[in-house]
Structures are given as C-alpha cells and as structure tokens.
Amino acid sequence: MADVLSQGEIDELLSALTTGEKSAEDLLKVEAEKKVRTYDFKRALRFSKDQMRNLSRIHENYARILTTYFSARLRSLVQIQVASVEQVPYEEYVRSIPSMTFLNVVEPRPLSGRFLLETNPNVAYAMFDRVLGGRGTSINKIDNLTDIEKNILSGLFDSMVRSFAEAWSSVVQLEPVSEVTEVNPHFLQMVSPNETVVVISLATSIAETSGLMTICLPHVVLEDVLPKLTNHHWFQEQRRSISPEEEEMMNRQLKKTTIDVAVELGRSTITIEEFLKLSIDDVITLDQELSSPLHMNVGGALKFKGQPGLQRDRMAIQVTDIVGGTEDE
Description:
It is a single chain. The chain is α+β, with helices and mostly antiparallel strands. The chain has 2 domains: 49-238, Chemotaxis protein chec; 255-322, Surface presentation of antigens (SPOA) (Roll), CATH 2.30.330.10. It has 10 helices and 10 strands. Helix 3 (49-74) crosses helix 6 (147-167) and helix 5 packs across helix 6. The radius of gyration is 33 Å and the shape is elongated. Residues 253-323 form the Flagellar motor switch protein FliN-like C-terminal domain.
C-alpha cells in the first residue's frame, strides 16, 4: 500500500508542479527510488509510547510532591515541573549533565539495579542557602564542601528520595535507599554506555535561582514494572473498587462536612424608582402567603419545605416536605 500524504505534502507538491520546479516525470522517478530510513542501533528504543506517557504522569506527580514539600521546608516560592521525558543511551546522558554536579545513587528496593537523582549545583546551593535563612542565592563550591554542608544537603536529598517512593506508590511499593553521593559523572559507571535509560528533566525554580534536576532510570530498574506502565493496567488500577474501610472513612469525613442552609421567607419585585424612595418603616409585600410552607435551600438549591417556629427561644424551621427526592437522598 502506498504511503498516505499529509495535506501539507499535497499542497507542497501542487505548488511545485504549478511553478515548474518539479515535473511529473521527476515525481515518478522519486517514487520509483527505494526509500531508506537510517536507524541508529546505539539509540535503541526499548520503551513504548504508552510506557513513556505513564512515566511522565508518575513524575508529574513527583514534581507536585516536591513542590509542596520544598515550599514548606524552604519557606519560599518553589516551582518544579517536568520539562521532558526521553530515552537516550547512558553515555549521551552523562555528556548532557555538568561535569561537576550532585549525583545521588539510589537503590530502589525491591527493584533491581540502581538509578541516579542528579541535582544541579545552582539548585542545591539555593536550597542550602534557604535552609540556613538566606535569600536563596547560589554559590558553586562543590569541590570543597564542609562536613556541615554535606550533612544538610544529604538531608535534603534524602527527602527527595522519600518523595520518589510516594510518587511511585500507585505502581509499586518502593523502599529506596541512598547509597552514595558523587560529584563527577565520569567516575560513575552504573550501566554500559549504550544501555538505554529514561531521563526525566525537572525544571526547578527556587526564589531567584533556577536550574534542572534530572532522574536517570536504566532499563534494568524498570524491567520488572514495565507491564504495569501500560494504559490498560493504568486505567484498571484507577477503576479499582474501594475497600469497606476506605468507604467507612469517607463517610465519616463527609458527615463532618458543613453546608449552608438558607430559608427563604418570600420574594418581591419593585422598580428602581421605588427602591430609591425606600425609607424607614416602609413595608415591602412578599409573594409568600402565611399558610404556605417556606422554601429551604441547601447549597443554593431547593431541597426542603418547612414551617417557621421557635425552639428554646430561638428561631427555627420544621421540615414538612422533601423536594426532588426520597428521604434517603
């Protein structure tokens, strides 16, 4: 079957024929030629589009969790969002990150292998400055950290690892453990240079400082959970029924929720001229008869009818009728 041309390609061909840039014979020759598409075996695509899309969803949730945590922890405006999700050879990922950066090697138990959580020094030092009460400015002194600075930064990185487990909880229960923190990516060889890895880039802004954090997930780490990253499994998990304990907890929370209930004594229509002439002791006649029940609105919608009265010297209303549903509703 011949390839189907897009509307843009059709318009381009018609324009070329009209202007004389191409003839019908030239087009026939091009069609007869064998079409070859180059394929780079070093960039083997081992993850489907569905899997990449669901990985993006997971880490968008991770970015939201980190934004909430660091906004409270640093007491500053923090914005973290997914900038890109792509699969590349490990060697290409190493070349794309700074030569001196914070690399946290994490073991995602019970999954196999290890993954990298890379934090740009600008972002790390902005966090460090805010923790110590600064304005969030960044200074790059990654090559001569003191013990105090290492401990503070390790605490921040550990919190990022715990949030990672929370973001993945809908797919697999992880207990990630930080193994070591490196600063030179060329001294860290986790997988072979041609191994395909998924790289999630997180655009991060803290106060006046911005930069990137990246997550490098080798194929060996994701291999066991790949079947759970398909759309079919994803939507099945979303539609799972809630347990009786969860339903009971939701009912308890709903019963504590407050709602606005308003009783309408009646309505009246007057002109603008009459409204402007209103004064003290004037009487406005309502369309509500004394013998008719009053309307009770719940959340702005008519739900009940009732009659007014007193309850322990306080104004009250007795429900006499239910509007638009049964008593259970």
